[in-house]
Amino acid sequence: MQRAHEEIDAATLLLDNGFTTQALSRAFHAAYHAAETALLVLGETRGDYSDVVSAFVRRVVRERALDPEAGRLLRALFNQTLLADHGYEPVPADEATRAVANACTVVAEVEKWLADPGRSAARRGEATRLPAKPPRRRPH
């Protein structure tokens, strides 16, 4: 969770210095690292951002009783970051401020969830298996 807190700090510094688009991106990364930590506790790993977001909502929010608002906020931050990263206009300051606050909420909710072993403890054989990779082609 240390990385999540570092990203919150970076987002706050960027926001305070007028870098709203970058602040939104760091806010998402804070929430992302919290979500990834929650999944790791359950023995889960995922390859990219969208997979982490989906697995977090399914495994942590739906199956392990994390506040559904945390899942909605993470997905919203992910979508906002995609739009901001590929857009040409800077993110409005109020939107970036909300994003940082939302990331703080996600991080706090995950920390509460982690502190409750009844919800966060991994159960034997419960991790979602990833599909096997297809065999590599041999050169002819």
Structural notes for this entry:
The chain is globular, with a radius of gyration of 17 Å. The chain is mainly alpha-helical. The protein has a single domain, classed as Four Helix Bundle (Hemerythrin (Met), subunit A) (Up-down Bundle). The protein has helices at residues 2-16, 20-41, 49-62, 68-86, 93-114, 117-120. Helix 1 (2-16) packs antiparallel against helix 2 (20-41), helix 1 (2-16) packs antiparallel against helix 5 (93-114) and helix 3 (49-62) packs antiparallel against helix 4 (68-86). The protein starts with a helix and ends in a 20-residue tail after the last helix. Residues 118-140 are annotated as: Disordered. Belongs to the UPF0332 family.
Q: Tally of extended strands?
A: 0
Largest sheet: none
Second rung of CATH, namely the architecture: Up-down Bundle
What is the gyration radius calculated from CA atoms? 17 Å
- In CATH terms, the superfamily is Nucleotidyltransferases  domain 2
> What amount of the residues lies in strands?
under 5%
CATH fold-level label: Four Helix Bundle (Hemerythrin (Met), subunit A)
Listing every helix as H and every strand as E from the N terminus to the C terminus, the arrangement reads HHHHHH
- Judging from the principal axes of the Cα atoms, what is the shape? globular
Share of residues in helices: 55-70%
Family: Belongs to the UPF0332 family.
InterPro entries: HEPN_dom, UPF0332_toxin
Organism: Pseudonocardia dioxanivorans (strain ATCC 55486 / DSM 44775 / JCM 13855 / CB1190)
Domain HEPN: 1-113
